[in-house]
Amino acid sequence: MNDIVKQATAQNQTNQKNTSKRILVVDDEQYIRELYEEVLKAEGFAVDTASDGEEALAKIIAGGYSVITLDVVMPKLDGLGILTKLKESTPKQKNGPIILLTSLANDPAVKQALEMGAQKVIIKTDITPKQFIDMIKTAT
User: Fold this and answer.
1) How much is the pTM?
2) Window from 4-8, 67-71, 91-95, 128-132 with minimum mean pLDDT
3) Which of 103, 120, 129, 133 has the highest count of CB atoms within 10 angstroms of its CB?
4) Distance of CA 35 to the CA centre of its chain
5) Which CATH architecture has domain 2-139?
């Protein structure tokens, strides 16, 4: 019983550390957005979401995110388009690293995204929710 209390206390302290960290999850797939939002909130992160590139760009320019996860293929403006526009404008508040998410393992956009400033590129099908959380914690 004492071990359970210690684990719960440790988890609560970790979650409290995460509450000051804002994560932006950008994906046009509602299921993916909701899944990542749910697991991040369970870890104590503040989470914003965007369902298309234009909405994402507005939020990124407003700034203040500890980490941004950005889908490659989206309506209105894709992930590479967002990275291009970010080269041309300065966010009002500093943002943390951008992690690009893609469904395509051999996507030519991967190399280009890394050259344009994405910190990391992740294949969505290769990552579990726990690995996603660990990646976010490492990036913050």
Assistant:
1) 0.83
2) 4-8
3) 133
4) 12
5) 3-Layer(aba) Sandwich (3.40)
